[in-house]
């Protein structure tokens, strides 16, 4: 039996002092994690000056009634590749169910559906993703890098990006102001 806990459907929260400025106060919605690696979408930071309507225009899609929401920094890997985290009430050709908690789509059909008003009820658009090779995330979890929590999908849709990190820690019963930025040894 594998003793490694898989984190699909959970949130990773960067610990203070993670050591990588790209992940300072990061909140990552984990979409896949198995023996071969992991993939998550950052939901704790938006890309300044880029909105959903801007993206839709780049694909020559009329925004319709879609609100002009911010686009999130999904992670440093493939930063020009788009992803949509969304409620599981919609599915397209490549949609992945994430542990029954949310879904992940990465093709243009989800953007078209959102613009047409036939897409998911709730969604978040991101560019890029956070990825880990085999064993890499497990190693980072063993060090002082990340905290994982189940949280609720509401964190994705109902909390402002800049508040998600603190709200997620609070939901786990932790005041992040009391966290140390270094790991101890015993």
From TrEMBL:
Xref: Gene3D superfamilies: VC0467-like
Cellular component annotations (GO), alphabetically ordered: cytosol
Cited SUPFAM superfamilies: VC0467-like
Signal peptide: none
Pfam entry (one): DUF179
InterPro entries: AlgH-like
Membrane spanning stretches: none
Record family assignment: Belongs to the UPF0301 (AlgH) family.
PANTHER family: UNCHARACTERIZED PROTEIN YQGE (PTHR30327), UPF0301 PROTEIN YQGE (PTHR30327:SF1)
Designated name of the protein: UPF0301 protein HNP52_002425
Taxonomic source organism: Sphingomonas kyeonggiensis
Lineage: Bacteria, Pseudomonadati, Pseudomonadota, Alphaproteobacteria, Sphingomonadales
